[in-house]
Prior knowledge:
- By secondary structure, the chain is an alpha/beta fold.
- It has helices at about 50-60, 80-90, 105-120, 125-135, 150-165, 180-200, 210-215, 235-240, 245-250, and strands at about 10-25, 25-35, 40-45, 65-70, 75, 90-95, 170-175, 200-205, 220-225, 225-230.
- A 6-stranded mixed beta sheet has the order 6-7-8-3-9-10, with helices on both faces. A 4-stranded antiparallel beta sheet has the order 2-1-4-5, with helices on one face.
- Helix 3 (about 105-120) packs parallel to helix 5.
- The chain binds adenosine-5'-diphosphate and magnesium ion.
Amino acid sequence: MKGAGIMQANGVAIEFEGVYKQFDQSEVLKGMGLLVRWGEVTTILGPSGCGKSVTLKHIIGIERADRGRVEVAGHDMNTISKRDLTGLRKRMGVLFQSSALFDSMTVKENVAFGLRMHTHMSETEITERVEICLGAVKLEGSENTMPVELSGGMQKRAALARAIAMSPDFILYDEPTTGLDPSTANVVGEYIVKLQNELDVTSIVVTHDLSLANQISDSIALLFEGRTAIQGSPEDVAKSGNEQYDMFVSGKI
Ligand SMILES: Nc1ncnc2c1ncn2[C@@H]1O[C@H](COP(=O)(O)OP(=O)(O)O)[C@@H](O)[C@H]1O
Ligand SMILES: [Mg+2]
């Protein structure tokens, strides 16, 4: 799948153009635009409730835009077939807000879950793959540990190992540092960058954590009142003088 022509480094992996999404009476996305390039970390930054998770759901195909265009890996998400959507989802590793590990399963079974469900790998191959993924997040040897026995930061790393198990093209993170103390949050940020460098992936991170955004991002898109107020490198957005960005940084929005 990789190197399929459309995946040129710095080419466009995901694009939102004029996206509108309403729930009941509240319009959440109001003409949103977004650009995600292959091989980069793009962070969707914004205050709580501004529509970041909703945006992520459009990328995964759980929500559909009322109006506007959402394109993911060359697919128009408004018209994508069920079959193509299933195929696309297999290329996505997702790290949800709560680590959402299965409490009743060992770390190994958590990481192996997708492999058992979607591949025909043998037990030996699964064991090897789980070892590699746990090694990538420095959790080697914790195969038989139960999630409750892990610290918050270790749970995030185990969830990260699960997210990369299927060798995804995309890793999607929803608030990966929420609930973590600053130093653990910093470590999670380091792992996001490490995996980005080691695996040939495109990462989309949704967060309200400005220091995480600055730590990991090639590109930051500030989402405010249903639109992208500004998108660019951390350095460029910081010196842009963009009013919404400056308000966000000073905690006014
Ligand atoms: N399925 C839904 N039905 C109704 N309202 C929703 C739904 N999903 C999200 N919303 C609303 O959309 C807004 C944005 O939500 P969300 O994307 O989760 O915010 P955040 O930026 O904190 O991730 C919120 O006001 C939320 O209540
Ligand atoms: Mg959210």
